[in-house]
Specification:
heterodimer; A: mainly beta; six-stranded mixed sheet; 11 strands; B: seven-stranded mixed sheet
């Protein structure tokens, strides 16, 4: 079983819709979860982090964490074409607390 | 300010060359990282420095040699690379050390696009 599972997409949503990105992880001991956005040819940009069960909102972004189900998601409200990018979920885990990435979901917001 | 800077932006080198990548942060972060990223893949961890000491080497070939001259700077020395080493090399930093029971957000620099010919 992979440590982090993400649907590779592409996930296509119309402009103004809610985009929902999902991620499951295998390490029950994981404490910290991160969402990075990566535009083509650019470096990953941290957009959200969440440490506790529940929801965390920042502007148009909401991260949701359910440790019992080992599930983390990112909702993007009022999606814009500029949100089109690959979204990487990551968590810290293992004995060394390294950052472990999923393979990323490509989001395409259609004007 | 969460800025990590990297130089150069692009680098083309032959297999017999020696070159260095540089990374700098002025956020007072105590952990710094080198990652390698191939197209359409997530970043792969190469090295971690914690309080200027090498704490993790992910079995990286010796043709990659990291150096941390001080708490703000991180270098990656390259020698006798292979074409398959062509990739985006990313530096990142975080406030606290890895191997801690706490987790800290990692911030990435813009990367160096390396091409080995």
């Amino acid at each position: 079983q992979k440590e982090v599972e993400q649907n590779s997409g592409p996930l296509s949503v119309p402009e103004g819709a809610i985009a929902s990105l999902n991620c499951t992880y295998s390490d029950r001991g994981s404490q910290s979860f991160f969402w990075y956005r990566q535009y083509s040819g650019k470096s990953p940009e941290l957009i959200m982090f969440i440490y506790s069960n529940g929801d965390k909102e920042d502007g148009r972004f909401t991260a949701q964490l359910n440790k019992a189900s080992q599930y983390v998601s990112l909702l993007i409200r009022d999606s814009q074409p500029s949100d089109s990018a690959t979204y990487l979920c990551a968590f810290t885990g293992g004995a060394t607390n390294k950052l472990i990435f999923g393979t990323g979901t490509l989001l395409a917001v259609q004007p | 300010d969460t800025e990590v800077t990297q130089t150069p932006k692009h680098l083309v080198m032959g297999m017999t060359n020696k070159k260095s990548l540089k990374c700098e942060q002025h956020m007072g972060h105590r952990a710094m990282y080198w990652y390698k990223q191939k197209a359409k893949k997530p970043p792969e961890l190469m090295f971690v420095y914690s309080y200027e000491k090498l704490s993790i080497n992910e079995s990286v070939p010796s043709r990659f040699s990291p150096e941390c001259p001080n708490s703000s700077l991180l270098n990656l020395h390259l020698h006798a690379l292979q074409p398959e080493d062509s990739a985006l090399y990313l530096c990142a930093s975080s406030q606290g050390p890895i191997l801690s029971s706490l987790s800290y957000e990692q911030y990435f620099g813009p990367g160096t696009r390396l091409t080995v010919t």
